[in-house]
Amino acid sequence: MSIRKKLILSYAAMIAVPILLFGLTIALLGNLLIKDALPGAGGGGKSGHSFPLSSIRDLFAERSELASGLKFIAEHDPKLLADPAFLTDMGARLREVESGMIVIRDDEAAYVSPGLSADQIPTDLANGRMKAENPGPPSGTQWNTIAFSSPDGSRGKLVIVSDMKPVADFFKRLVPLVLLTLLGALIVTNGLLTYLVSRSIVKPLYALKEAAGHIREGDLEHPIRLRRQDEIGQLGAAFEEMRVRLQASLGAQLELEHGRKELLANISHDLKTPITAIQGCTDCLSDGIADTEEKRQKYVQMIAGKTTEMNRMIEELQLYSTLDTGKLPFQWETVDLTAYMIQYVNELQLDPRFSGTEVTFTPSAGMEQVLIQADRQKLHRALMNLADNSLQYMKGETKKLQFSLDQEPGGIYLLQIRDNGEGIPADALPRVFDRFFRAQSSRSPGKGNSGLGLAIVKQIIEAHGGTASAASKTGEGTTIQLRFPAWKRDGTKPGNGGAR
Q: Can you tell me the distance from the alpha carbon of 283 to that of 9, in angstroms, rounded to the nearest whole number?
């Protein structure tokens, strides 16, 4: 549930719960208090109800009904007001609703309901001359006077007295209790909901603060698991993703730093060897040891060879750096890979370095024309790196370098380069395409291997939208697998074109 929904529900509860408690308080307290104020009310009797205000409403309704009936009798049948039986019955009915009546004839009280006192009739009603037949404390607070004429021509008054004191006492006791209950409900409800909602927000924020502290100190090993689906949960998930990426980035940075240190060590070693050889040759030439033209030519050729070897290592380092930063432009064009490989293999067969090596190319059936998007120059460089790498590690009398082209599902073309060299150790195979990595066997002197050849191949093939992988068995040879996506007629360039 989102924080917004939680807040809306808490606000609704802050209103609904006090209102509910307010109603229950009126029902419970009112039901208890009204039994004292109005006997017989609130208990389900003749005029009792579960809600106290209903009892009060019915009380006034019955009073109004009896008053209307007496008024009708006084106006249309006043002789009943002289009937003792009628007066006794009406007095009893009025008593049930906390009321009574006084019948006045010739300024004298002819009938007074039990519990009432004629002495309490206001002087403007009784003219100060009435005597009490039933003296006692006053209980009526509301007076209703109805004038009537008797059949004998005498005039009189019917006074209906309604006792309002029980109702007033009921509200005087109920209202303070209800207000206190409402105030308490508001305090408890708002306090409890505020605590729960704030706790559900503040607690995960403290967890994020603690995690941020670990990250600030460089400790990226503490995972963040909030297990929430709201906005804070999403923030925690983003924070955890950031931590994982930082951890991976730091690991990659450390690995890169290690690789760079290894590169410096390898380059220093590989450059020192030809430089030492060149220095030795120059010393021989300057000291006159090379006293014949044949010797001088031999030393000059050695210097040229070592210079070429150094230049190749520096060129590979520069090329990889340019590829890695994405600053090397690619010239894309539609290339028939089958025709391209036939031309490339013919070139290798004429290369003096591959004399004595059996170089072949075998396309699968139906692969007479294979179209891909490629940069001819960069692809040639990748293939030459692979061919040179294979040539360095083929030691047998019969050297074989085989190229084959197949098609895989999904419009993928598979170009494989197999050699029968010494192979790659199993522990080194997963890292052969890593930058700066060289298997231990490649540290043989004189090979001029910077450890960037296969890394350059991987960069170039991935820029073509493909992948590079290797399979090898020690002593049996190595197979390099290059996969290329088929040419798209919409003209979309593969990969990112060498740009980052």
A: 91
